[in-house]
Each structure stands twice: as C-alpha cells, then as structure tokens.
Specification:
It is found in: Cytoplasm. One of its GO terms (molecular function) is uroporphyrinogen decarboxylase activity. Pathway: Porphyrin-containing compound metabolism; protoporphyrin-IX biosynthesis; coproporphyrinogen-III from 5-aminolevulinate: step 4/4. With 352 residues, the protein is an alpha/beta fold. The chain has one domain: TIM Barrel, CATH 3.20.20. Strands 1-4-5-6-7-8-9 form a 7-stranded parallel beta sheet, sandwiched between helices. Strands 2-3 form a two-stranded antiparallel ribbon. Helix 6 packs across helix 9, helix 7 crosses helix 8 and helix 9 runs parallel beside helix 10. Bound molecules: coproporphyrinogen III. The site of coproporphyrinogen III has 22 residues, from strand 3. Coproporphyrinogen III binds next to strand 3.
Length: 352
C-alpha cells in the first residue's frame, strides 16, 4: 500500500532509540469527550457506529491533530471490538461506559464464542478506518494502532463491564485455571491477527493496553497475563516478517504492573509505557538503556493551574531525559479536562 510521505517521524525515531530534534508527545485517549468537537459528533452517532464507519472514525482521529501540535494520531476505536468479533454484544452507555449484557459465567460459556475469528470479516472496518486515516493524515504524523491485551479483555467479558474488584474474572483464574488459559489463548490468537491486519492496513506503531493489570498481583500476572503479552509481540513481528510487511515498533502499557517492570522490558517490546505511580529515574534504572519509556504524567496534573502544570511537566522531562523517551500521560485523559491544559502539556514538552 502506498501512503503520503511521513513528515514527522519523532515518535518512530524515539521508539527505535534514534536521536530526536524534539521529544515526541501524544496523549492516551486524545480523541474523546474532553473535546467539544467530539461531543458534537458523538451526540449524533452511537459510539460503535462511529468505530464501524471509517469516515467518522477517521474524522475523530484527526480532531486532536487539527487542534494540537501532537506527534502521533491513534486510530479511533475501542479495545472491546474483539469481544464483539467473538460474537458478544457490547454496548456503550452514556454515563455508564461499556456494558456486555451477556457476560461469560462458567467455562461452558466459552462455547458461545465464535472462533476462530476471521479478522477481515469481523474487524475489517477498523482496517478500512486505518487506511483512510493514513491518507487523510497526509503524512503529518504517524498513526498508532492498538488492541486490548488478553487479560484485560477477559475481565470485561466475564464482568460484563467495568468493576471495582474484578472479582468474577479473578475467580475464574483461581477456580478454572485451565479454562482461563484457553480463553486467554483464544484472545491471544485473535489479537495477533488483528494487530497484523492493522499493520497491513497502515498502522505505524502498535500499542497493547493491559489496563486491568492493576487488579493482579505478581503471581497471577506472571501466570496469566505476561505470557500472552510476550507471545503477542513475538508472533506479530514474526508474522509481519513472513508477510514481508514492515516490522513496526510495539508498546506495552500494563497499568499497575509496577512489580513486573523488569519482566515487561524483556518481552521484546520497543516501548514500555509507565503509569503515573512509577518514578521515571528508578524505572530507567530498572529497565536499562535499551528500551524506550513512555509516560507518565498523572492525568490529574491537567487540573492544576497552568504554572504548576508546566512545573510538573518540566520535572518529569528532567527525570526521563530526552533519549529513548515518548511523553504521554500515565493513563487516559478524563472527559472533564480542559483542552487548553492539553495544549500546555504538549507545548511544554516541545519547549525542551
Ligand atoms: C479499558 C479501555 C477501554 N477502551 C480503551 C481502553 C484502554 C485504555 C485505558 O485504559 O483507558 C482504549 C480506547 N478507547 C478509546 C480509544 C480511542 C483512541 C484514543 O486514545 O483517542 C482507545 C485507545 C475511545 C473511547 N472509549 C470510550 C470512550 C467514551 C465513550 C463515549 O463517548 O460514550 C471513548 C472516546 C468508552 C470506554 N471504553 C472502555 C471504557 C472503560 C470506557 C468507558 C470509560 C470512558 O468513557 O472513558 C474500554
């Protein structure tokens, strides 16, 4: 596939460990409800209809790029499109979040899942949105593709939505370890095909979101989450090589898995994204010099007065340094945040 020439490759250079003129910056959930232009479009369309309509998904992906001096776009979609591809109903309820009305209850429910998944048939709309967005971007910045990691997806599929304790999904890990592994393997297989399809469609970096890692302790994380995370990186890169596709950098964001930072950095990912609870200097010492770190401003720092926000950002960059670093928040931005704070965040990063 042929696309407009990339004019700003800071993100990719930083991911590969090359020198950059300025520190690349993007914001997790940069397209979303904190932007009035998103809320306007969203008031007219259902969430998953937007995801499934390449024209709309491309438009929303571009909204933050048109407003801010960002160094990357991330395709507008959701991690829960994979449970949908497996035949589960997922609704996005305003003010509530995602709801899966028929969650998996016991291992016999695995039979309900429609697999193996033909990703072109079930998720082809994401690939189309990526290709269209690559053209619409006109090479301004690279386009990030993403997926949820298996444990995080398993959590939503069993809990039926967000949860305070993740106790139902964790009960599976203790009561049905073999069925849990079967489910995680099935999700790993779909995720590999899905991410390779995104590269084929034009994604230039891939991020895997293990947002529910914070519910696991080291024992469960190493037994159930980490093997799938490692397998996905390896198989996606092997398959891209096989298909003579470009091997794109990959980022792992395992929110709350602070204890596993060393292990995560040894999984083959090019970038490890840190949540805001981790100290940048200690993290660098723990992972060594040969991996790129991403993060990790406390999203709530965007509520601070401008001067304090600038100070926080400068402190953070001083600790990370300019080498092998991609600036971001430590988790997604919240809907009630002021877009002007995002501008200050980005401009302060670029001022170094
Ligand atoms: C856990 C998770 C989900 N989705 C995602 C994650 C991993 C990242 C993280 O940990 O925050 C990933 C995601 N979801 C969305 C994106 C779009 C790309 C971007 O970052 O701009 C991305 C990368 C859009 C979205 N995903 C969602 C919205 C808002 C939905 C709406 O408009 O009603 C958007 C813009 C909804 C969503 N989707 C999900 C939840 C828990 C919610 C409800 C909470 C919320 O509303 O923020 C599942």
């Amino acid at each position: 596939m042929s696309f407009p020439v990339l004019k700003n490759d800071r993100l990719l250079r930083a991911a590969r460990g090359e020198e950059v003129d300025k520190i690349p910056v993007w914001v997790m959930r940069q397209a979303g409800r904190y932007l009035p232009e998103f809320r306007e479009l969203r008031s007219r369309h259902d969430f998953f209809t937007i995801c499934q309509t390449p024209e709309l998904a491309a438009e929303i992906t571009l909204q933050p790029i048109q407003r801010f001096d960002l160094d990357a776009a991330i395709i507008f979609s959701d991690i829960l499109v994979i449970p949908q591809a497996l035949g589960m109903v997922v609704e996005m309820r305003p003010g509530v979040g995602p709801v899966l009305p028929e969650p998996l209850e016991t291992p016999t429910d695995l039979q309900r899942l429609q697999h193996p998944v033909d990703v072109n048939a079930t998720l082809g709309y994401v690939f189309k949105a990526i290709t269209l967005t690559r053209h619409r971007l006109e090479g301004k910045v690279p386009l990030i593709g993403f997926s949820g990691a298996p444990w995080t997806l398993m959590g939503y599929m069993i809990e039926g939505g967000g949860t305070k304790t993740m106790s139902k999904a964790k009960a599976w890990l203790y009561q049905y370890p073999e069925a849990s592994k079967e489910l995680l393997q099935l999700l790993t297989d779909v995720t590999v095909d899905y991410l390779v399809g995104q590269v084929q469609a034009g994604a230039q970096l891939l991020q895997l979101f293990e947002s529910n890692a914070d519910f696991l302790g080291p024992a469960l994380f190493y037994q159930f989450a980490l093997p799938a995370i490692a397998e996905i990186n390896q198989r996606v890169k092997d398959k891209c090589k096989q298909l003579k596709l470009e091997i794109v950098p990959m980022t792992i964001f395992a929110k709350g898995a602070h204890y596993a930072l060393e292990e995560l950095s040894k999984c083959g990912y090019d970038v490890v994204s840190l949540d805001w609870t981790l100290d940048p200097e200690q993290s660098r010492q723990r992972v060594g010099p040969n991996i790129t770190l991403q993060g990790n401003l406390d999203p709530c720092a965007l509520y601070a007065p401008n001067v304090s926000l600038e100070r926080e950002v400068k402190e953070m960059v001083k600790k990370f340094g300019k080498k092998r670093y991609i600036a971001n928040l430590g988790h997604g931005i919240y809907p009630d945040m002021d877009p002007e704070s995002v501008r200050i965040f980005i401009d302060t990063i670029h001022s170094f």
